[in-house]
Amino acid sequence: MTLSVYERVLGADIETLAPELRSYFSGGHGVGVGAGVFDVADCRVALLRPLLAYLARQRILFPEFARNVPFEILNTPTSEGGLDAVRVFHLPGRDRPLEDTMRVIDGRLHDFMGRRRGFEVRMVLSIAEGVLTMRSDRQWIRVLGTRLRIPQLATVSVTESWRDEHQHVDVRLRTPVLGDWFRYSGEFTYSYGDPKA
User: Is residue 115 domain-resident?
Assistant: First the structure.
């Protein structure tokens, strides 16, 4: 059985996840599809919205503020052992797709974001009381084919938990001065099987 990117980083610690989460984070299942609703999906700092409008075109973030946002996710294992993800947020008046690819580099999880995967974030994984937390500790951008390390402009945190018969995800971007300035949080259901089949 092929190990997932999460299993390769967590090792035996993956067994301490809530049982309902293990299937999502384990390998060998193929393509996975999910759907749910985000209670909140927003950028709270109006000053940053022009930048996020640009990042929306790159399929990294988006500038809107909305509640009760339906969404879908499609996770596809890659031939190189990574995991491609496409999330589509059905915001009022338009859809916003976000794309990324997870890969393991030197035993650490790296997330390559955007249509061209040009923004790279290294994530530190930890599990407490069955809940998985991923937090960024380094960032890079790719310019003209060159990978450049940049200062950590914001801390990215992802919390995955299980409660009330649903998987819950809470994603936040934070800086010390602005606090949590971008967030999406909600619940979804998930299953395996190629939707195109």
Answer: yes
